[in-house]
Amino acid sequence: MSKYSSWSESYSKSYFKGGYSWTETVSAYDSESVTKGGVSTSNGSSWSWTRSGTVWDDGRNSWSESWSKSSWEDGKYAPSESEVTRGSFDPEGTQTQTNNLPSFGEAPRLNKAPKQDVPPDLMKPPKPSDDIWQLPTVIFKDAASKNASEDKTFWLPTDIYKELESQKVINGDGYLNASSPSTISRFEAIWRSALSILRVFYGEDADKLIQPGVLQVTDSKGILDAMDRANNWPSGKAKQQYGNLYGLVTNGRLFINSDLNTDDMTILKTMVHEMLHINQHRNLTTTLGPNLMEGLTQRLAMQAVRASGRPWDDAGGYKDQVRVVVSLERLLGSRTLKEVYFNNPGLLATEFDRAAGFKLFDTFLQLIEQRKFDEAIRLIPF
After folding, report:
1. What is the Cα 381 distance to its own chain's centre?
2. Cα 173 vs. chain centroid, distance in angstroms?
3. pLDDT of residue 131
4. What does the alpha-carbon distance between residue 297 and residue 276 come to, in Å, rounded to a whole number?
5. How far is the C-alpha of 177 from the C-alpha of 189, rounded, in Å?
6. DSSP character for 231?
7. Of 35, 33, 115, 44, whose CA–CA distance to 77 is shortest?
8. pLDDT < 70: residue spans in the chain
């Protein structure tokens, strides 16, 4: 006889202007197989329980709770079971109401919910409201003028602030402005913006930064030739493998393709992404593979650029990889993924398997490298 059980549990909380939303989920899978006299039989069941809601600052709230369960025996499924209940509260409502909003970890309010006690090592407290994927727009100011705490403000050392202001990298209101360089070239001005973003949002983790003297602006042919040289490839292999490249970091140089990076925002995005590669842990790619590595890089780049006050919603050629990283972020938190990227790639496997309750990370990684992104996401325990 063999038995197998798995658990997963998660809680997420996200804030918006005027309130917040939350989701709590528990799911489990159990199976059993027996072989007697050369005949094998098996049975199992899986279920999930979810409760979610929205709370507004004015006191209103709404929530829903549901569960579903499926069972099978020797390959045949029994009819599925499910149940749903809802609630809401409006302090200004005309009818008599009771505020019955559920709290995190509270027992199910359904009649037959299959939720059981989750193993203690899988319990996850609510995530903080300042998760990195919701960073606010910020303003840069001279630290010498600081006389009170201000929200959404990053105080820069006076010398750095004055240099960026004189070069019009920061405008008079404190926002990043790469579109009006004066005494420096357009590409170097935007490079300084990228440098500021990384210094502010990733601090000491992003201290290995390209210097302006090794910034190489080239065309499509030049950047593909650089890729061939970096890998000792025969001429033309990079074009065959990649088609084209927006940017490249190799041998301490940052190559920017001027044929594709034709506007300031695209240049900024490319530079932030490529400069993060310089700072990633040396074993990141060998430990996690190129797809997950690129997904982490693009996600961190998008977060930092958004937080600097500029929109970045389209993950470009890394859409699927970023979807995987966003799912990991919801499971493990942004701080864990930053630690994985900059300092400890091996931590991801440990934390993933701990959250799953059994060893699943190797399979997860194989699916990503096979570009089976949807299957990989389905393995992430929520």
Report:
1. 15
2. 30
3. 35
4. 7
5. 9
6. T
7. 44
8. 1-2, 15-17, 94-97, 114-144, 146-160, 163-164, 167-186, 204-214, 382
